[in-house]
Specification:
Length: 166
């Protein structure tokens, strides 16, 4: 049994140090990408307050065209859109640009895809391996402007840790 108990009074940067340590411990010796993404989605949910969705989209072959798109991976939250074209919505923007998307108000983001109508703000961080985006980590919150630069840097560190483990 793994019993990670985040401290509610913790400063965000300290919270991310512990989240990273837990993610490292759970994924270091495990070669299965799905297992690692599933456990990290659970950790995001346990460690980060005020989320309504946390999980992964992976770059995968598109169903019909000879192209790639984002395909839903392990997550915690309500059932979500399964396939997202590169460049669409916040996740597609992160995947196409390779840059973190920190969105204070999802309703002001052109093309935002509302998988859960409760979402008000969103943080999407690309996972890069050998310079290529292989997945994105998506965190949604029901509160406007929930995510800060500390969150962006914390999830970017997590993405770097996971680059060769998912
Ligand atoms: N809102 C995202 C779609 C994924 S869900 O939030 C889980 C987007 O605009 O890309």
């Amino acid at each position: 049994m793994y019993d990670f108990r985040p401290d509610a009074a913790q400063a965000p940067a300290e919270r991310y140090r512990e989240l990273l340590g837990a993610a490292d411990a759970l994924t270091a010796d495990e070669p299965d990408a799905v297992a690692n993404m599933a456990n990290v989605a659970a950790l995001l949910w346990e460690f980060l307050p005020d989320l309504n969705w946390a999980g992964f989209y992976r770059i995968a072959p598109a169903k019909r065209e000879n192209a790639s798109e984002l395909v839903l991976g392990p997550f915690v939250g309500r059932p979500a859109c399964i396939r997202i074209p590169l460049g669409s919505g916040v996740c597609g923007a992160a995947a196409q640009s390779g840059a973190t998307q920190l969105v204070a108000d999802v309703n002001a983001f052109p093309g935002h895809i509302a998988c859960d109508a409760a979402s008000r703000s969103e943080l999407v961080v690309p996972v890069l391996r050998d310079g290529q985006v292989i997945a994105v980590i998506d965190c949604d919150s029901p509160s406007p402007a929930r995510f800060s630069q500390v969150d962006a840097e914390g999830i970017e560190a997590l993405a770097a840790l996971l680059a060769t483990r998912i």
